[in-house]
Structure formats: structure tokens, C-alpha cells
Specification:
Keywords: Ribonucleoprotein, Ribosomal protein, RNA-binding, rRNA-binding. Pfam families: Ribosomal_S6. The chain has 2 helices and 4 strands. With about 100 residues, it is of the alpha+beta class. The chain is globular.
Length: about 100
């Protein structure tokens, strides 16, 4: 059964635009290869971090929304954990949007 998920991850600010695009494609392909459906990917740009992480004060924020049965998340997060580019990541399960009743 597919659920909606959102993954937000922060990349190091000192990598170039091409490396950012490659990282986005890498994590999208891990999900796609394991049966996930990418709904939306937003490149939120470089922002200041609330606190210093690994001697970095800024980071490139990426948000990915996808549908999956949950199995590819572990593989994607393992790749993020092993990557030198990713500072932090978080995946959360989202609620399905409820259809609102239309009053006549």
C-alpha cells in the first residue's frame, strides 16, 4: 500500500550547482528503481542553518515528495548517510489529503 512521504535533506553549500543536480538525480533514481513515484522535488536554495553542523553555517535545502510502500526509504537514507555531500536528512510520512465535502 502506497503512502505519501516527504524527505528534506541539506547538502553542503560548497559543492557546485552541477553536484547539487547530480545529488538530486541520485536520490530520485534510488527511489524510482525501487518502485517509488516521485511527485515533486523542490530545490529550496542556500539558506542559513539554525546552528552549525559539521563546521557549516549554511546549506542547500532540497525537498522531495513521493509515494512509496516504504521499502526504498532505507536504501535512500543509507546512501545519504554514507555521502559526504549530505549534512542532514529527515523523512516523514504524510497524511493523505482528505476530500472535503462540497455543500450545495
Amino acid at each position: 500500500m502506497s503512502q505519501l512521504y516527504e524527505t528534506m535533506y541539506i547538502l553542503r553549500p560548497d559543492i557546485g550547482d552541477e553536484a547539487v543536480d547530480q545529488a538530486i538525480e541520485k536520490y530520485q533514481s534510488i527511489l524510482k528503481e525501487n518502485g517509488a513515484e516521485i511527485i515533486e522535488t523542490q530545490h529550496r536554495g542556500k539558506r542559513r542553518l539554525a546552528y552549525e553542523i559539521e563546521r557549516q553555517r549554511e546549506g542547500v535545502y532540497i525537498q522531495m515528495n513521493f509515494k512509496s510502500d516504504g521499502s526504498p526509504i532505507a536504501q535512500m537514507e543509507r546512501a545519504m548517510r554514507l555521502s559526504n555531500e549530505v549534512i542532514r536528512y529527515l523523512t516523514v510520512k504524510q497524511e493523505e489529503p482528505k476530500a472535503e465535502a462540497v455543500e450545495a
